[in-house]
Amino acid sequence: MFIRDGAVQRGAVAEEADTVVLAVGGFPGRPFEISAWESFFAAIPATREERWDDAIAIYEDGLRDSPGHPAVLFNLARVEARAGLRLDALRHLQDAVGRDPALTAQVRSTSDFATLRREPGFPG
């Protein structure tokens, strides 16, 4: 489906197993850019299955595509914390909040960071 009006929003849901929904968006006259959020969506299966090394690798790829993106750093810190990589998680979390201070509220409320809250330098 092609939607000319960029203000129009559509949704899609896979109702059967093994269904793939592909959505692509862009702007006229500009080359397509991969959204920094793609790593979040790609990491969902690995995160649900607690395959932390796989999830970490996906977010690291996301950082190569979108260096320093606060949401990618935040989500990388989440899976690193769950994997027990406390120092890596803390470093990425500090970087995320330093780039986007609005993330501080999420840092305080995200249970994935429970093991980090007493660490010196925890940005919450």
Q: Look at the helices and sheets and give the structural class.
A: mainly alpha
Specify the CATH homologous superfamily of the domain at 38-112. Tetratricopeptide repeat domain
**Main beta-sheet strand count, sense and barrel state:** none
What is the H-and-E element order?
A: HHHHH
Which CATH first-tier class of the domain at 38-112 would you pick? Mainly Alpha
Helix content: 40-55%
Helix count equals 5
Beta fraction: under 5%
- CATH topology name of the domain at 38-112, in short, is Serine Threonine Protein Phosphatase 5, Tetratricopeptide repeat
List keywords for this structure.
124 residues; Serine Threonine Protein Phosphatase 5, Tetratricopeptide repeat; 0% strand
Provide a quick synopsis of the model.
By secondary structure, the chain is mainly α.
Describe this structure in words.
This protein is an all-alpha fold and about 120 residues long. The chain has a domain of about 80 residues: Tetratricopeptide repeat domain (Serine Threonine Protein Phosphatase 5, Tetratricopeptide repeat), CATH 1.25.40. The chain is built from 5 helices and no strands. Helix 2 runs antiparallel to helix 3. It is globular, with a radius of gyration of 17 Å. The termini are far apart. The mean pLDDT is about 90.
